[in-house]
Amino acid sequence: MGKTIILGAGGRLGAALARVWAATGEGIRGLDRGAFPLDDPAKVEQALLREDFDVLVNCAALTQVDYCESHQEEAFRVNAEAPGKIAEVCSRKGARCIHVGTDYVFDGLADRPYSEEDEATPVSVYGASKLAGDHAVLAAGQEHWVVRVSWVFGPDRPSFVDQILARALKEDRVDAVADKWATPTYTLDAAALLRPFLRGISGGGILHLSNAGACTWQEYGQWALDVAAEAGLPLRAKTVGALAMADLKAFVAKRPPYTVMDTTKLARIGGVPPRPWREAVREYIRSQIEAGVFSA
Ligand SMILES: NC(=O)c1ccc[n+]([C@@H]2O[C@H](COP(=O)([O-])OP(=O)(O)OC[C@H]3O[C@@H](n4cnc5c(N)ncnc54)[C@H](OP(=O)(O)O)[C@@H]3O)[C@@H](O)[C@H]2O)c1
């Protein structure tokens, strides 16, 4: 059996991948930030050379977009330099590196979903640092994958969908941005969609992975409220009002307005198309309600 290491195993995506794959018999070693810090790329190299694995999945990253804007050096160290070192060590060990990337590498000015071949021109330090990481990983080996995801949600760490439900339980009025489009990515679906790429599928490159379809934050939030109300959650707010991105004065970094990704390649190579985002969000909210996570 192969041995898979997951970096960032304390995060939203990494924790889900580690749990789901371990349950299906994969040999998993999940390393969180404490066990495997990425702050010093030289130390990353030494630490990784001591590990025994044939696949490494890197979910660790400095993900706070606004923090990155004012911490450029740290962002590039963690999101670009460290992944480059990791991928180089993987190549030296004959292992595959699967590095998780982001839709924020795009400027968001397209009028159709972005394919893997589309040029990436980031508008933020976070996006630029992640793009530099993509390039470094791909340059280190032809069997490495850069898997770009968007609007990640799941049970291991709260995200937009959890926040809007928590607010709708307490407040009479909730709003969300109505002029920014992307596609939610359910971590449990990502685990299933990504599994064939661990071993077996030869080659490498960029892969776009999300659920299917597209929405604004307002539509995403409205669907979350609809599903929660249908499941009996006593919401105070039933509709999500519209905000413009320009109204969000707390945003420091510029955000790309449209980052829907084309997942045709994922379905073609992996063999399974992602399901629509509404189905995934409904399943997630129902399971969280059943688990007693949301209460009035
Ligand atoms: N969340 C999204 O909507 C989204 C969208 C597009 C792409 N992505 C990408 O998806 C991947 C996974 O993101 P996520 O949603 O799971 O985010 P997350 O919950 O923030 O997970 C990232 C993990 O990286 C760890 N980390 C941060 N700095 C580190 C460092 N210097 N050394 C070692 N570990 C460090 C974090 O540890 P601490 O929590 O202890 O700081 C956290 O466990 C990332 O590559 C991200 O860029 C996410």
Relevant terms:
296 residues, alpha/beta, Rossmann fold, six-stranded parallel beta sheet, two-stranded parallel sheet, 10 helices, globular, binds NADP nicotinamide-adenine-dinucleotide phosphate
- Strand percentage lies at 15-25%
Q: At CATH's second level, what is the architecture of the domain at 3-157 and 185-212 and 255-275?
A: 3-Layer(aba) Sandwich
Sheet with most strands = 6 strands, parallel
Unreliable parts: none
**Can you tell me the CATH superfamily of the domain at 3-157 and 185-212 and 255-275?**
NAD(P)-binding Rossmann-like Domain
Per DSSP E runs of 2 or more residues, the count of β-strands stands at 12
Which H/E pattern describes the elements?
EHEHEHHEHEEHEEEHEEHEHH
N-C termini distance: 46 Å
> What class do helices, strands and sheet pairing give?
alpha/beta
Mean pLDDT: 96
Shape: globular
Tell me the radius of gyration: 19 Å
Helix content: 40-55%
Which fold name fills CATH's third level, the topology of the domain at 3-157 and 185-212 and 255-275? Rossmann fold
> What's the arrangement of strands in the largest beta sheet?
2-1-3-4-5-10
CATH class of the domain at 3-157 and 185-212 and 255-275: Alpha Beta
The hetero compounds bound to this protein are:
NADP nicotinamide-adenine-dinucleotide phosphate
**Helical stretch count?**
10
